[in-house]
Amino acid sequence: MVRARLDGLQRALRAVGRVPEAMRQARDETLREWADNVKSTAQEKVPRDRGELFQALDDRVNTHFGRADVGVWDADQLEYAMYVEKGTSKMQAQPYLVPAFNEHRRQVTRTYRAAFRRHIGGG
């Protein structure tokens, strides 16, 4: 009869069992942080003539589908938001959303990795 002793196998199996939940928690945390950061940066960059477009900026996080959006959904501000971002024949573009997205694009991977390590228990 041959016997093998597998030290740490139970601990390793428990750690593997924690992976899916740690991934979900890290994803949700990353989505929320990214959306909050993009929204804040867009609010810093948006022109504030009357402040209505600033107030209309919003974020939506859907953790069920793993999606985060930042933009303007207020029907009264939607068309104006596009004019400000892209400009018109009579108005120069004053981009605020695209620069905010670009500024925080690279943060996602770092944020996710750090959150995953925290949730899995690795630092």
Automatic annotation (TrEMBL):
<dbReference type="InterPro" id="IPR010064">
    <property type="entry name" value="HK97-gp10_tail"/>
</dbReference>
<protein>
    <recommendedName>
        <fullName>HK97 gp10 family phage protein</fullName>
    </recommendedName>
</protein>
